[in-house]
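Assemble and predict.
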Amino acid sequence: MNYGTGNSLAALAALDSKYNSFKTKDKQDMITEFYMFKMEPSQKPDEASAQLQVLQGKLGLFADPHPISDKEVGLRLVASLPGGKTGQLGPYGAAKIALAKSIAATDPNAFNLEGVEDELNSIHKVLYPNMWNDEKDNLSTSDEQAMMAASNGATQKKTKCPNCDKWHRGQCRGKNCKPGNSNSNNNNNNPNDDRRCTHCGKSGHLENKCWKKKKGLPKSGPSGEAVNACYEISLTCTEITLGVAMTSEELQTLVREETLVDTGPAVVTIDTPYDITFAEEGPCSTNIPDLEESVLDDDDLSDIDDFPALVEREFDDDNLSVDSYLSVFASEDNSFFPELAAPAITSSEGEVATVGSAAGTASIP
Amino acid sequence: MLNSSIQELEALKVLDVETVPDCETEAGKAIRLKNKLIIKNNTQMWSSMQLAVDGSTTKGKVAWLKIQKHK
């Protein structure tokens, strides 16, 4: 097949002009990119200026270069500063207008782009000091410290703070959790603090910060076991809660105990040498029987001058009983123990009560 | 690789490099052989371009026409 012969170079040039037009297109893109450049709010002005200067250099390297002067770069840099909302100046404020005017008035040959960068950087340092503080820290610390700081920052994740209910890293710096504030409620994080929560018995927090208490879990002792959980609930909760948490018998018991707490103890122990204890089964009463304590006091016995002479009587040991023993005193006209000779010991049926020194009973000498 | 230009190729298209003159000098012979090589390379490149262009697509047809304009 004869294709003929033509000018291959001319054909290549024609094809190149038709299809290989990336250089012209790229140039237009670069020009558009340069004049539409917008600086990010957090971007440093010197970095933005560097980007513009790269575009300036690339446009100058084309076969048909598009020359851009430094003054244009400076004007473009000022124009690309982040603006505010409609009708507002933005973070750079009036400095943007002042710089634009001064650049426009400057001779292109005498224009100093670095001076504009410095002025914008000084404003940026005020607006975003954290970006520049990081740079200072990196310069002042050693590489090892920088690596440690980077590793700590990488591993430290944001967690929800139980103190301020916000998501943040590290120690909470909320208003109630300032480090060194002795009045703060969180000072029980001190490892030397041996105080324990009175609700769950654990160290590290106090009762007002106890999550178990907040969740309504029962109170636990120092070792963690529940201590009289139902009783604790009964003192704090309503009757409805009591009905759910307790049986009717337990509820009655607690009601009775609360009543006793209000009115005084029903079980009264009197400190006497005879260890007499009175137990009240019925409703609480403060009517403690009068014991005539002087009668039972040994010291008072010495005050008796006319103590009757003891009459020796012979008792048959085999037939000896309390009944007969007491009946002797009861039969005496001038008996000094009428109360003790009273029928508390001997029942109406003639049964003999057990007399001893056991607790809860009256022991007779 | 011999360097040439579009204008040189256009001039060589009408030049007879195959006929050897009777009194051809050594310099004339060198130029003739050089032009002959240029033309040969151009023919090879042209043939390659003809084969490379796919005329079944729209873009290929346009390319074909672009090439044929310089035949």
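The helical segments of chain B are 6-13, 26-52, 58-68.
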